[in-house]
Specification:
Elements (H helix, E strand, L loop, with lengths): L13 H24 L9 E10 L8 E12 L3 E6 L14 E5 L3 E8 L8 H6 L9 E4 L1 H8 L3 H11 L26 H5 L1 H10 L2 H4 L8 H7 L3 H9 L14 H7 L6 H5 L1
Antiparallel strand pairs: 1-2, 1-5, 2-3, 3-4, 5-6
Length: 273
C-alpha cells in the first residue's frame, strides 16, 4: 500500500460520492470476511483495512481540511467500526499514526481486503511451457474509491498503480466484494467457512452450552456476533441449541435488530420466526 495512502476528496465529484455510498452499503461483507480471518489459524488476508474521512477546521479557509486515510486491526460491533490509523496525516494535526478511532458505518469512505489467487489450470502445450513458480498477485475486493481513481487513469497509469500496490484490482467496472464471487455466486449469500464449519460448531456448542447463553460486558451473545457477521448456518446452530433470540445488548439491541440494521436478508426470517 505504498501509493494512494491519503487522498483529498472532491466533494463535487458525484462518482466519488457514489463510491463512498457503495462502500458503506457493502461494508458488512468486509466485516464478514474479517471476522472469519480472526478465526483462521493461518491468515488468508494480505491486506485488510477501512478508509475514513478525518477532518479539522482550517483557520485560513471556510472549508475544513479533509484527509481520507486507512485504519486497520478492524473490529465491528454492529454499530461502530473500530481500528487504528496506519497513515501519517499530511496536514491534519488532530490525529496521528496509531491513534484508535471509532466511527459509524455511514462515515467510512471505502474498504479493501486482498486474498491470494488460485493459479488457473492450463492445458496442452501451454501447460508444458508455463512456469510452476509463477505466482499471481493478491486479488483486491472492494476498493471503490480506488477503482474510481483507476477509471480516470490511462492503461499505462493503471498498470503502474497496480504494480505499486502489488495487487490485482481487476476491472474497475466490475468490482467484486466477496471471495470467488464469479466462480461461486452463493458466497454472496453466505461465507463458505460458515457452511463448512457447521458440523464443528454443532459439536462445540453441545460441549460448551454456556457459550450459547453467555454475554460479554457489553451484552453481546454468540447469536449477536454471528448475526452481525451474516453467518446463517451458525445462527441456525445456535438457535437449535437453545440460543435466546431475545437477548439484548447493553444498548438494547437483539440479534434481529442487527440483522435488519445490516440488511442480512437471509437471516432476518430465521430470527423473526
Amino acid at each position: 500500500m505504498s501509493e494512494n495512502k491519503i487522498f483529498f476528496a472532491d466533494a463535487a465529484d458525484p462518482e466519488m460520492s457514489k463510491a463512498y455510498k457503495k462502500a458503506q452499503e457493502t461494508f458488512k461483507y468486509f466485516w464478514r470476511e474479517q471476522s472469519w480471518e480472526y478465526r483462521r489459524i493461518i491468515p488468508a488476508l494480505s491486506v485488510s483495512c477501512v478508509k475514513v474521512a478525518f477532518s479539522q477546521e482550517d483557520p485560513s479557509s471556510d472549508s475544513p481540511i479533509v484527509e481520507h486515510m486507512w485504519i486497520n486491526d478492524i473490529h465491528f460491533d454492529g454499530d461502530l467500526i473500530k481500528g487504528y490509523l496506519i497513515n501519517q496525516p499530511n496536514k491534519l494535526t488532530n490525529i496521528e499514526v496509531g491513534d484508535y478511532v471509532e466511527i459509524p458505518v455511514n462515515e467510512i469512505s471505502d474498504w479493501l481486503f486482498a486474498m491470494p489467487q488460485r493459479a488457473k489450470k492450463t492445458k496442452g502445450l501451454s501447460k508444458l511451457f508455463s512456469s510452476s513458480s509463477e505466482s499471481l498477485p493478491p486479488k483486491a475486493y472492494g476498493g471503490f474509491t480506488i477503482q474510481k481513481m483507476r477509471s480516470d487513469m490511462s492503461p499505462a497509469e493503471r498498470k503502474a498503480h497496480d504494480n505499486a500496490w502489488q495487487m490485482d484490482f481487476g476491472d474497475f467496472n466490475d468490482i467484486e466484494i466477496v471471495y470467488e464471487q464469479k466462480e461461486h455466486p452463493e458466497n454472496l449469500v453466505e461465507h463458505p467457512m460458515s457452511r463448512n464449519m457447521k458440523e464443528e460448531l454443532v459439536k462445540f456448542v453441545s460441549e460448551n452450552p454456556d457459550e450459547i447463553t453467555g454475554q460479554d460486558i457489553n451484552g453481546y451473545s454468540m447469536l449477536h456476533a454471528e448475526t452481525i457477521a451474516g453467518n446463517l448456518s451458525s445462527v441456525e446452530v445456535i438457535l437449535a441449541a437453545g440460543g435466546d433470540k431475545n437477548l439484548k445488548t447493553k444498548s438494547g439491541k437483539t440479534a434481529l435488530d442487527f440483522a435488519r440494521q445490516l440488511n442480512w436478508e437471509h437471516i432476518i426470517p430465521v430470527l423473526e420466526d
